[in-house]
């Protein structure tokens, strides 16, 4: 698995909330919410590249949005994007909304709450999304109880625990995203080191997507899956 080291956190003054920079934007952090990692910028850059190749307004969904880092970075880089961001817990949703206001992007990014896509049921987005992005938890439960236990000292389990094999959320994401993507829309998500083979199998077995490609980090390790929903026949 990746080291999952957080990017540098700064505190401006004793009364200020801690902040981080992610893809050029400054985000407030809060206890109980995952601190964005540098490796997730690979997913953000991949998403921006996909959107910049589109014409007109683009509809984007950010699942497991955490602090809102991906949703807000995408909205800042692609002004024509309308972004819906979703997460499960009160703390993450509240922080993502504060960050949208902080970045002046509340008009472009709507933050909702729910278990994966359940928070979007009343948004009328089924079959309309140009892009779904997600940075889901991808460390196995066993590793979190062993050599990766230190991750849980300051950040929430739900941000890391990917189930017995680290891919439980990925399985749901691949299946459920298809209902929201338009034909030819894109699914892009992060995964852990060494999980590319299993991810490829998940996408192939789902039957909704064209053959996936992978974006690699600076070391040449695949870390982001990019798959296009098949066109309607």
Characteristics:
disordered N terminus; Rossmann fold; 7-stranded mixed β-sheet; 6 helices; 24% strand; alpha/beta
Helical residues, percent: 25-40%
Main sheet makeup: 7 strands, mixed
Order of helices and strands: EEEHEHEHEEHHEHEE
Rg estimate, integer Å = 17 Å
Q: What's the architecture in CATH terms?
A: 3-Layer(aba) Sandwich
- Let me know the average pLDDT: 85
Shape verdict:
globular
Domains, number: 1
CATH topology group: Rossmann fold
**Number of DSSP-assigned strands:** 10
Low-confidence stretches: 1-15, 159-165
Number of helices: 6
Distance between the termini: 39 Å
| Derived structural class | alpha/beta
Can you say what the CATH homologous superfamily is?
Vaccinia Virus protein VP39
Strand content: 15-25%
What's the arrangement of strands in the largest beta sheet? 6-5-4-7-8-10-9
Q: Identify the CATH class.
A: Alpha Beta
Catalytic activity: L-glutaminyl-[peptide chain release factor] + S-adenosyl-L-methionine = N(5)-methyl-L-glutaminyl-[peptide chain release factor] + S-adenosyl-L-homocysteine + H(+)
Pfam family, one: MTS
Domain Methyltransferase small: 58-142
EC number: 2.1.1.297
């Amino acid at each position: 698995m990746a080291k999952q080291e957080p990017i540098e956190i700064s505190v401006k003054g004793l009364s200020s909330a801690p902040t981080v920079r992610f893809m050029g934007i400054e985000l407030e952090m809060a206890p109980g919410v995952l601190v964005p990692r540098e490796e997730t910028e690979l997913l953000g850059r991949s998403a921006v590249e996909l959107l910049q190749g589109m014409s007109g307004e683009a509809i984007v969904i950010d699942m497991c949005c955490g602090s809102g880092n991906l949703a807000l970075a995408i909205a800042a880089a692609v002004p024509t994007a309308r972004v819906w961001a979703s997460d499960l817990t009160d703390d993450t949703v509240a922080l993502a909304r504060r960050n949208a206001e902080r970045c002046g992007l509340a008009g472009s990014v709507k933050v909702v709450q729910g278990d994966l896509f359940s928070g979007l049921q009343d948004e009328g987005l089924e079959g309309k999304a140009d892009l779904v992005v997600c940075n889901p938890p991808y460390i196995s439960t066993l590793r979190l109880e062993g050599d990766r236990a230190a991750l849980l000292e300051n950040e929430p389990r739900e941000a890391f625990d990917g189930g017995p094999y680290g891919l439980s959320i990925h399985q749901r994401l691949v299946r459920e995203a298809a209902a929201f993507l338009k034909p030819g829309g894109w699914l892009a998500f992060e995964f852990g080191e060494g999980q590319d083979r299993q991810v490829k199998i998940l996408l192939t077995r789902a039957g909704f997507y064209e053959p996936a490609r992978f974006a690699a980090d600076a070391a040449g390790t695949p870390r982001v899956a990019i798959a296009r929903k098949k066109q309607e026949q």
